[in-house]
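Sequence, structure tokens reproduced for reference:
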Amino acid sequence: MLSSISKITAIALAAAMGTAVAAQDLQVGANIGNVPWEFQDDTGANVGFEVDLVNAVAEKLGRGVEIVNIPFQGLFSAVQSGRVDIAMSSITITQERLESVTFAQPYYDSDQSLTVNANGPASLDEMSGKVVGVDTGSTGDMWATENADEYGFATINRYEGLAPAMLDLAAGRIDGYISDIPALQYYVKDKPELKVVQRIATGEAYSMMFAKDAPLATEVNDVLSALKEDGTVAALHEKWFGATPEDTTSTVTVMDMPTLN
């Protein structure tokens, strides 16, 4: 039998081991409500393309995942401060962002889009004098701001996620919503009162974001290569978007980590 001291030591060791195991969980920041990338289902569980993908990555690394709900704009400071290990929310890789953070290789190619009510503007050319909605700090926000004069937007309303923007669009408080085309195509497929009327070519590619030069970024990049090679990423694309990705896309093609030019 163990002595009292031995029992105490054993209990302390077990507690320390439990803490170590818990610490292995990856802290993943995500803007929950970003359909179909990360959102809550009817049971309140976090689901989506990127939720499935980060869980597949974590499994390969022998780690768990704890998702932290953070508004999109807050994801950048969250990784930089170490509050989270990884940030995801259909985050576009840009040269400007690469100056302060690191990305793994891309896994989705995307453009922006204009979504309107079924009887709304038919294109960007009809948005002059209209109110447009965007997600705060997103590529759509940057594009709309840069092109506001060209298309004559009356106002740009900024939102934290797709859901509140869609409520305002349906209520007529905004005339159009500019955001990632896959998310909007997924959202409107069973909503005939809304429609995606125009693709806005931006050459975007999405990936997971890390603190600048974080070693974890290289580990995750290697895992993403393996998940592309074994067909996991392509299967997730088919699950969430209902189509097999083209062989030329970053969903299928193993790529290098993005670097500053």
About this structure: The chain has two domains: 4-109+206-241, 110-203. The chain is about 40% helix and 25% strand.
